[in-house]
Design goal:
Layout (H helix, E strand, L loop, with lengths): L2 E3 L5 E7 L4 E6 L4 E4 L4 H9 L3 H9 L5 E3 L1
Antiparallel strand pairs: 1-2, 2-3, 3-4, 4-5
């Protein structure tokens, strides 16, 4: 999965697999999580948000199933 850097104090990179609708989030401390059944538009908005951390907490955390990698 290709990852891209984002503007955040807590999140280092995010990636997205459109075939499985899986979003991958890499935190600054090295933890990696995958979020499932995430629409492509959410990834696009996340990538372009002014604050990735705020977007994550508002639109992703607690909304989608996830697993720590």
């Amino acid at each position: 999965m290709d990852r891209k850097s984002v503007n955040s104090a807590n999140i280092r990179e995010i990636g997205y697999d459109s075939l499985s609708s899986t979003l991958e989030v890499v935190f600054m401390d090295g933890r990696v999580y995958q979020y499932f059944d995430v629409p492509g538009r959410v990834y696009d908005e996340f990538l372009q948000s002014l604050s990735a951390g705020q977007y994550f907490h508002r639109e992703i955390r607690g909304v989608y199933r996830f697993s720590r990698v």
